[in-house]
């Protein structure tokens, strides 16, 4: 397992430049998963040399190679968002998280494959081919941050950044047996993250351990004056997370665990809960009768915002343009028809529809009200519990191509992850036990800006399972 | 007139902030195309808008000046439509919670009465870029320097009844915007744009006529003309019994043809799919900013006008001209620092100075006749050193040369002849030369008095002091 501590050990012994070179070489030779779209070879080595010259290895991520989902802007690198329409687009600026990573000494190693514009749960909707699951290459790695998850699960890099709109960090983390966090909405700047659904999107880390997750998290968080939705919230002391002695009240939604859930996932979920109970934590059963609304609400709000966010890709100012057209209407429609894949078109159409006059009242506005209700109800649960635990996904990975036509199956697989996005709450996915090639996972959802509780309990879960070896 | 027209206006005006509405790009015009741009105002993926607080302040300032209510909680929304000049293919604007609402602006009618024109709402939004179809043979070109420049949209109630009221309203609004120094509001330069809604109904009718929208006017005069044309067109249709031919549509004003032409019907109108801008959280207008706005000291055109009328004993008409531009009002008051006859100063500015300026299209700030120089001219006249007639010539000289009035008077020998002996001699000469006329005058032809005055002025090249000449002439004629 590649972890930050391993990289740091090797840097201590061999120096930063050779390590970065070997990481790049390893990716070039061993990325059989199609997880990287572009390597930052020249700049990564340059950056390593510069760090090496400075000799200041106090930086928290000194020399740590980070893979970045290809919808996060890295200056002078391509940012395709997994789409043909941006296949040659080069970002003119750095995302805030990239600035923060660089300041912390991290090396931006490359950009990772993803479902086009982060729309998908299997990474089969990339214009640059599907990503393969390192645990079994015939299977999907989940999505949309499939490349970021595969790069970590495949030990090409120790850590990566993904983005999570309805589970796009946590679900691929679960599918690849890695750790994935969606921070509280407003905790991490979205400046430089290509918007899918702006009110739901959050950047989050994918790692092989709790330690690494916390390290990456603490670097990328914070109020950013370039993102008005970030919040100035105190960052808790993250140094005393291990050896937690706080006994938590853990909420569980029995009503959500019906027969649609994979039996193995359910078993391991109860197993970890029992273990936590043994450690003195208390389990609290919670009512939740809005389960059936979660996916529909999401599938209205996310496409609505996406239809507007993706409107800018018209081939006029940047991106791939269909040449030889005779009017602005033809230019825009042909460019978009050629540049966007099926899933993106589907969601743009749905989004346009639900916002249209005559339908907005029926769909979009109702969904906004329902979203508020869900948020309120979930938040109110934290009056009686500290953390809510669910499985991360209802199902285990499936074979590439197996479900690609089954749109509803794909949409429903976000059932457990979407609530955190709708309500802005933080949620952490932790791998539990191996089952066949794959892992089962648990999701811990916390109160707003209470990531610290997720980390404390996450460390305990990691201790119980023994973590990844 | 059996008909009345119902007019409402929608005005967009560019704010004079230093930077754009949602990014740090400079707001400046006449720059090389696509130089004041950045990832945010070009809509690059990942970029996010951050609200320019100055824009909020300016909106609140106009809100205060128009007695508007402030929406304590306000937000931005997205207006979605595809057009190449709008980088994100949506405009950040305000939909259901405009920052200001329910205000009014007073206009002065011909009969000297004031009329309140309701302001439905004032909201903030971003401007678009500019498309050029004529700069390149094969391509349309776009300049995005203007994209993201802050605008205020001001929507009136349908309170206006005539094209001339609309014209007056626009002038009043422009002058308020300039008084507040938040917008130059020059329609000819595109800094201010006006769309008009107009319908016509019979006076006795209760139901409004069908509303037509007019676009593409590029001056206040064009707005007036377009309205006049459109109202006539609608009345003619009603008269002919073809009321149903007035459709809810958008019509374009064709300046050269002086008529309106259909642009699009209601059915073709875009569906803007408004929804709350998720990148900018709804926000409260906090007390600090309200207090800041309330502490700004300003006098609005109307207040200034009323003060001028009272303080300087001016007619409402004169006051309204002098206060139409804040610079002109300042100029007037500066003149009065050196010369205390407000009425005379007002007359000279309005009847003489403004005419000179109009002739070569200059603004008060650009001219060489400083308030001090105009005051000097007025004093020379007041002290009988020059005649009013010479005064006009002198003003023109100063206007053209920028020289000191006193110097010009010396140079040209324009000093008025006020010396009684000298004047008597001249008058006697004139009377001798016109014996016939003197006889006729004595026989009762009083109007010949003016003829003698004219001859004297001619002889002195207009420099004879009129008052003294008048007295002396009367005396000498009596003695004849």
From TrEMBL, chain B:
HAMAP family: GatB (MF_00121)
Keywords from the named record: ATP-binding, Coiled coil, Ligase, Nucleotide-binding, Protein biosynthesis
Protein name: Aspartyl/glutamyl-tRNA(Asn/Gln) amidotransferase subunit B
Enzyme class per UniProt: ligase
InterPro entries the record matches: Asn/Gln-tRNA_amidoTrfase_suB/E (IPR017959), Asn/Gln-tRNA_Trfase_suB/E_cat (IPR006075), Asn/Gln_amidotransferase (IPR018027), Asn/Gln_tRNA_amidoTrase-B-like (IPR003789), GatB (IPR004413), GatB_C_1 (IPR042114), GatB_Yqey_C_2 (IPR023168), Gln-tRNA_amidoTrfase_suB_CS (IPR017958)
Similarity remark: Belongs to the GatB/GatE family. GatB subfamily.
PROSITE patterns: GATB
UniProt keyword Protein biosynthesis, yes or no: yes
Catalyzed reactions per annotation: L-aspartyl-tRNA(Asn) + L-glutamine + ATP + H2O = L-asparaginyl-tRNA(Asn) + L-glutamate + ADP + phosphate + 2 H(+); L-glutamyl-tRNA(Gln) + L-glutamine + ATP + H2O = L-glutaminyl-tRNA(Gln) + L-glutamate + ADP + phosphate + H(+)
Organism: Candidatus Mcinerneyibacterium aminivorans
EC numbers: 6.3.5.-
Gene3D superfamilies on file: 1.10.10.410, GatB domain, N-terminal subdomain (1.10.150.380)
Annotated Asn/Gln amidotransferase domain residues: 330-477
Assembly mode: Heterotrimer of A, B and C subunits.
Coiled-coil parts of chain: 420-447
UniProt-listed PANTHER family: ASPARTYL_GLUTAMYL-TRNA(GLN) AMIDOTRANSFERASE SUBUNIT B_E CATALYTIC DOMAIN-CONTAINING PROTEIN, GLUTAMYL-TRNA GLN AMIDOTRANSFERASE SUBUNIT B MITOCHONDRIAL AND PROKARYOTIC PET112-RELATED
GO process annotations (BP): translation
A molecular-function term among this protein's GO annotations: transferase activity
